[in-house]
Amino acid sequence: MGAPLLEIHDLQKHFLVKKSFSAQNRVYLKAVDGVDLTMEKGETIGLVGESGCGKSTLGRTITRSPAARLSMKGRILPNTHPTR
To answer: CA 17 to CA 62: how far, in whole Å?
Structure first.
């Protein structure tokens, strides 16, 4: 079997909810934290959860943000790297 169609490692999306001059006093909401996902050719993935659990944020983060290392068919997609 070849490389997975899509791989996601350590996907994170954190929102700053309390600003502060001191980094120690900043508060972040961890909407998506440490998601790993592998999708093989021919597979379909469904995401199910309660309202407000992060389903839409996960989808938007996967498709719009370079917040994780993504690879497709074994090749790392450009401009994707771990960030916080």
So the answer is: 22
Token readout for 46 is 């469904």
6-11: average pLDDT: 84
Q: b/e per residue, 7-43, with b = 16+ CB within 10 A?
A: bbeebbbeeeeeeeeeeeeeeeeebbeebebeeeeee
- Which pLDDT score is estimated for 17? 92
What is the percentage of the chain residues whose pLDDT exceeds 90?
A: 20
| Inter-residue contact 53 to 69 (CB < 8 Å) | no
For the record, the structure tokens of 79 come out as 């401009």
- The answer to whether the beta carbons of residues 68 and 12 sit under 8 Å apart is yes
